[in-house]
């Protein structure tokens, strides 16, 4: 059984028939799109998508910072005025 990470679901047929109605009905929440009762996609609002992308960017930056802090080199302290 595959988990569904949404409070609402819709079939692909419903999505094809009236995508605007699904978007309006979602009220900004994500909708799991099902094909033969299995999730195949998620319909998310632009606001949610943008927040997810920002979170992913923050995670990638955090990993870069951690890798650089752990590379064995002594960090150089600078102030904003130095930049």
Automatic annotation (TrEMBL):
<dbReference type="InterPro" id="IPR036165">
    <property type="entry name" value="YefM-like_sf"/>
</dbReference>
<protein>
    <recommendedName>
        <fullName>Antitoxin</fullName>
    </recommendedName>
</protein>
<dbReference type="InterPro" id="IPR006442">
    <property type="entry name" value="Antitoxin_Phd/YefM"/>
</dbReference>
<dbReference type="Pfam" id="PF02604">
    <property type="entry name" value="PhdYeFM_antitox"/>
</dbReference>
<dbReference type="InterPro" id="IPR051405">
    <property type="entry name" value="phD/YefM_antitoxin"/>
</dbReference>
<comment type="function">
    <text>Antitoxin component of a type II toxin-antitoxin (TA) system.</text>
</comment>
<comment type="similarity">
    <text>Belongs to the phD/YefM antitoxin family.</text>
</comment>
């Amino acid at each position: 059984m595959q988990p569904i990470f949404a409070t609402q679901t819709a079939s692909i047929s419903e999505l094809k028939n009236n995508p605007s109605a699904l978007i309006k009905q979602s009220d900004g929440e994500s909708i799991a799109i099902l094909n033969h009762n299995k999730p195949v996609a998620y319909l998310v609002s632009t606001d949610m998508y943008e927040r997810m992308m920002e979170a992913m960017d923050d995670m990638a930056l955090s990993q870069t910072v951690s890798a650089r802090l752990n590379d064995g080199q002594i960090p150089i302290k600078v102030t904003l005025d130095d930049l």
